[in-house]
Amino acid sequence: MRVGTTPWSAPRVHGLLAAGARADRLAELARAVRARPLDPACATPLRVLRRALRENDDEAVRRAARTLLGRGPGLTPSGDDILCGVLLAAHALGTPAPGIAAEVTAPDAVARTPLVSLALLRHAVRGECVPQAASLLRGLAAPYPLDPDPLLAVGHHSGTDLARGLLAGLAARR
């Protein structure tokens, strides 16, 4: 038996939505996400994050990110997946998300969330993501029907929570 490695390159999403996302596509995604449960521990921090993003309050965004980091069960907690989504939305729009990036790259982040999740967060800081997220972001600006199912099917709740973060990040910058 021979074992080898395959080079892996995460899709980059920087500027994918520089011209904006179609409102009808965002509504489709929001309907699909609302039909799925949110970890109750993330409900209030997500509301706080959405408000801070809308108000463009970097310090409040950072506090909300700190609250969400590591929140929820599993190798990629729901709070982390939400933060990944917000970071990717910022990259797709070509806008910064310094408060969230600062929290997920802070030295104490390694003690607050699983390493697998931290690695995915740090990829998101660079605008890198799973192929399903990049495909969904492309679909938000496309003239053809949106298919959120491939992203929503990722992990137990990860894809849905990542989509929640995308929606939060995109809605705040409309």
Quaternary state, please?
A: single chain
The main pleated sheet reads as: none
The unreliable regions are none
Order of helices and strands: HHHHHHHHH
Distance between the termini: 53 Å
Helix coverage percent of residues? 55-70%
- Binned strand content: under 5%
Secondary-structure map with pairings?
Layout (H helix, E strand, L loop, with lengths): L22 H12 L5 H15 L3 H11 L9 H16 L4 H8 L9 H11 L5 H9 L9 H4 L5 H15 L2
Helix pairs in contact: 1-9, 2-3, 2-9, 3-5, 4-6, 4-9, 5-6
Question: What features would you describe in this structure?
Answer:
By secondary structure, this protein is mostly helical. It has one domain. It is 58% helix and 0% strand. It has 9 helices and no strands. The protein starts with 22 loop residues before the first helix and ends with a helix. The model has no long low-confidence stretch (mean pLDDT 91).
Key descriptive features of the protein:
single chain, about 170 residues, mainly alpha, 9 helices
Give a short synopsis of this structure.
The chain is mainly α and 174 residues long.
